[in-house]
Amino acid sequence: MPDHHAPKLPYPTRRACVAALPLLLLRPGSAAALDFPTRPVRMIVPAAAGAGMDILGRAAAQGLADLWGQPVVVENRNGAGGTIGTDALAKAPHDGYTMGVVNSSSLAIAPAIMPNVPYNSLTAFAPLGLGASNDCALAVRADSRFRSVADVVAEAKAKPGVLTWASAGTGSSTHMAGALFGLTAEVDIVHVPYRASPAAVTDLLGGQVDLTFNTMNALLPGVRGGLLRALATTGRGRDPLLGDVPTFAESGYPAYEASGWLGFAVPAGTPPETVAAMSEAVHQVTESQRFRETIGNSGMRPLSLSGAEFAAFLPAEIALWTDVVRRSGARLD
């Protein structure tokens, strides 16, 4: 069983476990030695326009286009919790001219909760690197009687199965954040999945649900506008955009941490020298000030990790969320 007390990637302190790996995907000069690309590159984003994955994908596409001198064309392929677009990436030609955005939901959670996912997360892709992490938060309406996590837990224990919480969808990182909280706090709060974050927030504001676990970019407008109150954030450290909101660890649950991540990959079988050149380019872009500002302003945390580090921690992430799904009984609704 995964150790929930252990620090989790993709935060920098977890890099120690992979520091000894040769970062072959970041060999100096590999991009210069390869004449790539010589024509436009397609970037598959398995999410709707305006979603966090889309914001990250478009920011990277702009940076890569400037770096390569070739267009990087974003193609939104939404549906089935991101697995439709991710499957399209897995089945794309492995020549380097199709890359895609991948995340914790599509690669680590979907295989645990969805039957017959059409790709193998560990073998269908060549990771290029990570670009961001994405904490969630537990939030309520501004006029809610709940002022803290302790308030929620007290009522949930007094009235099991009465309170409701909304997520951005079954199998999303927001779903898993709530499921892990239920296990950690030993409370029974009814999960109400929505098709996307905005719908969950709308119904919270309308009083159809009591709570939501949701992403920062979905919650920030309501919090800043005085419509929502964030009770706790799910990352290890406080989120810089909600610096006055405690983490779950600070709220009495030191073993709790649930953060999503977003990165880039190409289909498996892409020539190693092409993967190396693309990984180097992705690393340059995700380290740039422009990219980091765009990601930070959207509610995500900039996070630039190599393809080798990405590949090294993915099996542990799959194991973690497989365990949470099994113990919580989470299933497709």
Write the layout of secondary structure elements.
Layout: E1 41-45, H1 52-68, E2 72-76, H2 83-90, E3 98-103, H3 104-113, E4 125-141, H4 149-158, E5 164-167, H5 173-185, E6 190-193, H6 197-206, E7 211-215, H7 216-224, E8 228-233, E9 259-267, H8 272-286, H9 289-297, E10 301-306, H10 307-328
Parallel strand pairs: 1-2, 1-3, 5-6, 5-7
Antiparallel strand pairs: 3-9, 4-7, 4-8, 4-9, 4-10
List its traits.
333 residues; D-Maltodextrin-Binding Protein, domain 2; ten-stranded mixed β-sheet; 37% helix; 20% strand; globular; disordered N terminus
Q: What is the N-to-C order of secondary-structure elements (H for helix, E for strand)?
A: EHEHEHEHEHEHEHEEHHEH
Arithmetic mean pLDDT? 89
**Biggest sheet overview:** 10 strands, mixed
CATH superfamily of the largest domain: Bordetella uptake gene, domain 1
Which CATH top level class of the largest domain fits?
Answer: Alpha Beta
Q: Which CATH architecture of the largest domain?
A: 3-Layer(aba) Sandwich
Distance between the termini: 26 Å
Number of helices: 10
Which range does the strand content fall in? 15-25%
Work out the number of β strands. 10
* Oligomeric state of shown chains: single chain
Bin the helical content: 25-40%
CATH topology heading of the largest domain: D-Maltodextrin-Binding Protein, domain 2
Low-confidence stretches: 1-33
Principal-axes shape call: globular
Total separate domains:
2
Radius of gyration: 19 Å
Structural class: alpha/beta
